[in-house]
Amino acid sequence: MQMAFYFDQTRCTGCYTCIVACKDWHDVPAGPASRRRVATIEKGHFPDLFVAHLSTACYHCASPACSAACPVGAITKRESDGIVLVDRAACLGHNHCDSCLQVCPYESPQFGAEPNAKMQMCDFCVDRLAEGKSPTCVASCPIEALEAGAMTDVQLKKDAGHEAEGFQYDARLKPSVLFKRKRDEKGLPTTRVAVAPLQQSSQGDVR
Question: Residue 28 and which of 37, 120, 185, 192 are 20 to 30 A apart at CA?
Fold first, then answer.
């Protein structure tokens, strides 16, 4: 079985509740590390405007590049449900390695501001999952834009597909996420993309 996320982009208002709930549940301190992020995509010029939001986290890929890149085997994929987990005690830390961040096209691996921060990322709230509960981002979304479940169930959702504004499917990695896309019917040019919270790239700059 492979666990997966489903995101209804037509519902999301960019309220950031998923970000706050995730940080709170996992005790992630204020700073650059955020296991869930929200991108806002703005297109067009007045009066022809289009805005979409994309809630993003680790997609627990079928073939995770981060796991293959980790030099100490700190990142593993569970056979039972396909969830990708990091052993933070085994991680070398940001001062010595950021191979996982460099190879992930979705920038899911996160590092805090502390010296030699250990990598962290979405773990699908495995503690909640063990109790039969949904991930905290899903449970907290006030408009039910996020869902989680077995990929075989998520695939049955109406209009579920690999396309969404701000997202690019990687066929090599096979990210475990499906979307109901908010469509830009006019094909407007992208004018701005902003990600909250601000992210620290593999080169160390904040963007």
Answer: 192
- Containing 197, the helix (H) or strand (E) segment is none
Nearest one of 197, 201, 200, 205 to 56, comparing CA atoms: 197
Distance CA 26, CA 16 (A): 16
Are 189 and 43 in contact by the 8 Å Cβ rule? The answer is yes
Q: Which DSSP state fits 8? A: E
8 A C-beta contact, residue 54 and residue 39: yes
At residue 200, does pLDDT exceed 80?
no
Nearest to 21 by CA among 118, 172, 133, 158: 133
Confidence at residue 1, expressed as pLDDT on a 0 to 100 scale: 93
Which residue blocks in 3-155 are alpha helix, DSSP H? 17-25, 65-69, 99-103, 126-129, 136-140, 151-154
| Residue for token pair 């699908």 | 124
- All structural domains of the chain, each given as residue ranges with its CATH number in brackets, are 3-196 (3.30.70.20)
Q: Read off the tokens for 91.
A: 């991680």
Cα distance between residue 193 and residue 43, in whole Å: 9
Write the DSSP assignment of 20-57 as a string of letters: HHHHHHTTPPSSS--SSEEEEEEEEETTEEEEEEEEE-
Residue pair 93/117 in contact (Cβ under 8 Å)? The answer is: yes
0.85 cut: is pTM over it? yes
